[in-house]
Amino acid sequence: QLLLEHQCEEEIDKDFLNLALSETDKIDRRIRQLLSFVRPSPPNFAWCNVNQILGTTIQALKNIILARNIEFIDLRSNNLTEIYADKEQLEQAFFNIGLNALEAMENGGKLTIETFTKTNGKNTKEEFIVIKISDTGKGISKMDMENIFEPFYTKKGTGTGLGLTIVSNIIKEHKGKIHVESYE
Hints:
- By secondary structure, the chain is α+β, with helices and mostly antiparallel strands.
- The chain has helices at 2-5, 11-38, 50-67, 87-103, 142-145, 163-173, and strands at 46-48, 70-76, 83-85, 109-119, 127-135.
- α3 runs parallel beside α4 and α4 packs antiparallel against α6.
């Protein structure tokens, strides 16, 4: 990453460094996914800002967004309260969801991240923070929707099939809910 920040003398050097960084990131993600699945660490809860966590996720996905010619739409609300959560685990969950969204858009598209508060219809004093991540990718079939959170289930040519399993586990640990809507 440091080498990429400095000017490369030849374009081939820059291309090689981008490739090396991309492949290293893939290896790192797979190792982290396997470790998270096999030996999940207990959450380290603290008060944190969801928009800041999403900001970190967006930065981590920025190169893929640019490389795939994807339009990023940021609809994060400025009026969110802090939540009691494990920042690193939420970063991992948001990253996995974001990466899946980007991989579903091979030839451009739109990635939208939205945050807002919502009250429980029965109890208007109980507020929830909603994080909505949307893409214009190819979608998920009804048959596949039933299995997307199952370990090692994937329809992609690459990957471990653990990304969404880890997301589901993290959300459950945080006493949250995850809902997926998709059509092909």
